[in-house]
Specification:
six-stranded mixed beta sheet, alpha/beta
Length: 653
C-alpha cells in the first residue's frame, strides 16, 4: 500500500532521516515512536507530500486514499459540527445545505438560481448523503458530542472539540490509510475507549503517533521507532517492543564489547611487535585487520533515571486535608450528599470512576477553587494546597522567556539546576529563550509543570497532568512525583502513570466514595476488572466487590486502612526481595563463569602469541582446542547472562 525507500531528510547539519525505509500494508496497525524532535510529524508530512525528502522514493498504490489528523490544529470555517464531520467533499456540503434550506420552507432567496433543480436529491443520494450523515452522527456521539451540538457552528467550540469533529470526518470518510498524530490528546477517557474499540475494526491501515502506552498496546501490531536517523520496526505492541529493544540493545552491547576486546588484543600485539623486524609484517597485518572491521557503534544510553533531587515542600501534619458532610449540586443535578474524605501525609490517591461522577468536582473542592453547597473543608497543620488543571497555563507570563518564567519562584535555585529540569521536559538549548507567548499548548503545559515542581506545595491536586505530554515528559513527571515527599491526589487515564505512583485508589460513582487501600493492581484484583483501562470508568464494582470488607467505603485515614496498607506493602516488599535475591544469584553465578572463561581466553591468546609456545610439540594444537571450547561456552552462556541481567534490571526498575 505504502512504501518508503532510502528516505533522507536534513535541516542544515541536523539529520532526521538517513536511508530510512518503511512499508505499510493493508490492515496494518503501526505505532510510530521516538523522542521529541526525532521527526515523527515530519515523516507524516513527507508521506503526505507537504515536505519533500532530500533523497529517496515514496510509492503509493494506485487509488489509495489517505487521511491525516494533525496533532494541534485543523482548519474550520462556517460549517456546523455535523457538516464538518460529514464533509467528504465540497459538493456534498453544498448539496446538503441546499436540502436543509428547502426543508426550512423553501427560502429560495438564499440560493443561487442554478442551485434550484430537481436532481439535488438524486445527486445527494449518489454521494451516499443520508447514509454518510447517519454514520457521522453515530461517530460524533461516540466522541461524546450531544445531539444539541450537531447543528452548532464548529468555530464556536473549543479547539479540542474541533479536533474531535475533524477526527469524526476522517472516520466517516474512511480512507484506506489513516495517519493519526496524537489522536487521544483531546479526548476524555470514555471517548478514548470508544475510539480504541472503533479503530480495532477499522477496515483500512493505520499509522499513529501516540504517547499513550495502553492505547498502543491495545491497538497496534507493530512499532516503528525513529532511532539514529533510521526507521526500526518491531513486531508486537508497545510492551513487546520495549522487551525486544532491550534484548537487541543487550546483544549490541555484548557485540560492541567483544569487538572492543578484540581490537584491544590486536593493538596490544601491534604495540609490542611493530618495532621488531621479525614481527613488523605481522603487526602491519593486524592493523589492516582492524581497519577492515565493520565497526559496531556503542548503543545509545537513555537517561532513564534523573540524577538530581527536586526541592521538597515543608513537612505537613499527619492529617493533611479532610472534607466533612459535603453536599454539592449543579442546579438539579446533585453530585454529593454528605460525603466525607481524608488524605494523610505521603498518600498518593488516584480518583477513578465514570465521566460525570464528580471526580473533577471533588478535586476542585479539595483545592478550594469550588465552594460546596454545605459541609467543611479543613486543611491540616502546615498544609498548603496546589491545584494543577489545564487552565493553569493561563497563569504564565506571556512576556517572559521560558527560563525567566521557570526562575519566577520563591525557591533559590541555580541556573544549571533549572535548565536541567527544563531539559527533562524537553526545553533544551535555545528553547529556554523562547517567549511564553509563542509556545504551543503542550509546551505551556510542560512549563507549568516545571514551575509546580520547582516550588511544590505539600498537597498536590492534579487533574489529568499527562495530557499533551509525550512519553519522555511523562517519565520525567512520574520520576519527579515519585521523589515528592508530600501528599498527592490526582485524576488520570494513563494506566502506566497511575501504576507508577498511586498507593491508594478512590472509586467515585453515584455520589459515593469507595476506598481501596493499595495500589492500582490491588484495586483491579478487588474489583475483578476485565481490563486496566476499563476499570478507570467502571460505573459499578465488578464481581460484587462492594460486599467485601476491603471495598467498603471507609475513611482512608482509619486505623484499619493503615493496617491493611502496611500489610500489603510489607508483603509486596518481601515478595520482590525474594525474587530479586534469586535473580541476583543467577546473574552473579553466570558473571563469575564468564569472568573465569574470559581470563583463561586472554591467557591462551597470550601463549599463542608467544613464539616459545611453538617450540613445544603439540602445545599450540592443545591451546587452540581449548580456545575453541571456551569460545563455544562463552557463546552459550553470554545470552543467558544477558537475559538474566535484563530481568534483574526490570525488577529493579
Amino acid at each position: 500500500m505504502l512504501t518508503l525507500s532510502g528516505i533522507c531528510k536534513s535541516y542544515g547539519d541536523r539529520v532526521l532521516f538517513a536511508d530510512a525505509t518503511l512499508q505499510a500494508n493493508r490492515g496494518d496497525r503501526i505505532g510510530l515512536v521516538g523522542p521529541n524532535g526525532a521527526g515523527k510529524s515530519t515523516l507524516f508530512s513527507i508521506i503526505l507530500g507537504e515536505e519533500v525528502a532530500d533523497e529517496g522514493k515514496i510509492t503509493l498504490e494506485r487509488g489509495v486514499r489517505m487521511g491525516y489528523l494533525p496533532q494541534e490544529s485543523a482548519p474550520v470555517g462556517d460549517e456546523t459540527v455535523i457538516e464538518l464531520a460529514a464533509s467528504v467533499s465540497p459538493e456534498f456540503t453544498r448539496l446538503r445545505r441546499i436540502l436543509k434550506a428547502w426543508d426550512a420552507d423553501h427560502p429560495v432567496e438564499a440560493l443561487h438560481p442554478e442551485e434550484v433543480h430537481d436532481d439535488v436529491h438524486d445527486r445527494f443520494n449518489e454521494l451516499g448523503g443520508y447514509r454518510l450523515e447517519a454514520k457521522a452522527r453515530q461517530i460524533l456521539a461516540g466522541l461524546s458530542f450531544r445531539d444539541s451540538d450537531m447543528d452548532r457552528p464548529a468555530r464556536e467550540m473549543s479547539g479540542g472539540w474541533v479536533m474531535r469533529a475533524h477526527l469524526a470526518r476522517l472516520l466517516t470518510l474512511e480512507p484506506d490509510l489513516l495517519l493519526l498524530d496524537e489522536p487521544t490528546n483531546h479526548l476524555d477517557l470514555e471517548a478514548l475507549l470508544w475510539l480504541q474499540g472503533y479503530l480495532k475494526s477499522y477496515p483500512g491501515a493505520i499509522v499513529l503517533i501516540s504517547h499513550d502506552r495502553e492505547f498502543l498496546n491495545e491497538l497496534v501490531g507493530s512499532i516503528v521507532e525513529i532511532r539514529q536517523s533510521k526507521l526500526m520496526r518491531y513486531r508486537g505492541n508497545y510492551d513487546e517492543y520495549l522487551d525486544q529493544r532491550e534484548a537487541a540493545e543487550q546483544q549490541m552491547l555484548a557485540a560492541f564489547k567483544h569487538q572492543e576486546r578484540e581490537i584491544a588484543r590486536l593493538m596490544d600485539f601491534v604495540n609490542r611487535f611493530r618495532a621488531k623486524n621479525t614481527k613488523a609484517s605481522q603487526a602491519q597485518s593486524k592493523l589492516k585487520q582492524i581497519e577492515r572491521m565493520d565497526r559496531i557503534e556503542a548503543p545509545e544510553e537513555e537517561n532513564r533515571k534523573l540524577d538530581f533531587q527536586f526541592p521538597q515542600p515543608q513537612r505537613s501534619g499527619l492529617k493533611v486535608i479532610s472534607l466533612e458532610q459535603i453536599h454539592h449540586a449543579y442546579g438539579e443535578n446533585v453530585v454529593y450528599r454528605g460525603i466525607d474524605f481524608e488524605a494523610q501525609r505521603g498518600q498518593r490517591i488516584v480518583l477513578v470512576g465514570p465521566n460525570g461522577a464528580g471526580k473533577s468536582t471533588l478535586l476542585k473542592i479539595l483545592a478550594g477553587v469550588l465552594t460546596p453547597a454545605s459541609g467543611e473543608r479543613l486543611l491540616g497543620h502546615n498544609a498548603k494546597a496546589g491545584y494543577y488543571s489545564q487552565y493553569r497555563v493561563d497563569m504564565l507570563n506571556p512576556d517572559h522567556t521560558v527560563l525567566e518564567e521557570a526562575f519566577d519562584t520563591p525557591q533559590r535555585l541555580t541556573e544549571q539546576f533549572v535548565r536541567t529540569l527544563l531539559g527533562c521536559f524537553l526545553f533544551r538549548g535555545d528553547d529556554v529563550f523562547k517567549k511564553v507567548s509563542v509556545l504551543s499548548g503542550g509546551e505551556k503545559s510542560r512549563l507549568a509543570l516545571v514551575k509546580l515542581l520547582l516550588d511544590p506545595p505539600n498537597l498536590l491536586l492534579m487533574d489529568e497532568p499527562t495530557t499533551h505530554l509525550d512519553m519522555t515528559s511523562i517519565d520525567a513527571l512520574a520520576f519527579a512525583l515519585d521523589q515528592f515527599q508530600g501528599t498527592l491526589v490526582f485524576i488520570s487515564h494513563d494506566v502506566y502513570f497511575i501504576r507508577a505512583l498511586a498507593n491508594h485508589v478512590v472509586h467515585v460513582n453515584a455520589g459515593k466514595l469507595t476506598h481501596y487501600p493499595g495500589g492500582y493492581q490491588y484495586y483491579l484484583d478487588k474489583t475483578k476488572a476485565l481490563s486496566e483501562r476499563a476499570a478507570l470508568t467502571a460505573g459499578g464494582l465488578v464481581g460484587n466487590a462492594a460486599s467485601k470488607p476491603e471495598a467498603r467505603p471507609s475513611a482512608p485515614g482509619s486505623a484499619a486502612s493503615r493496617k491493611d496498607q502496611k500489610r500489603l506493602e510489607a508483603e509486596e516488599r518481601q515478595a520482590k526481595s525474594r525474587e530479586r535475591k534469586s535473580r541476583q544469584a543467577v546473574v552473579e553465578k553466570l558473571e563469575t563463569e564468564i569472568l573465569h572463561l574470559e581470563t583463561r581466553q586472554a591467557e591462551i591468546v597470550a601463549e599463542l602469541e608467544n613464539a616459545a609456545t611453538y617450540e613445544k610439540p603439540g602445545l599450540p594444537a592443545q591451546l587452540n582446542r581449548e580456545l575453541v571450547d571456551i569460545q563455544h561456552r562463552l557463546a552459550e552462556i553470554t545470552p543467558k547472562w544477558e537475559q538474566a541481567a535484563t530481568r534483574l534490571a526490570e525488577l529493579d526498575a
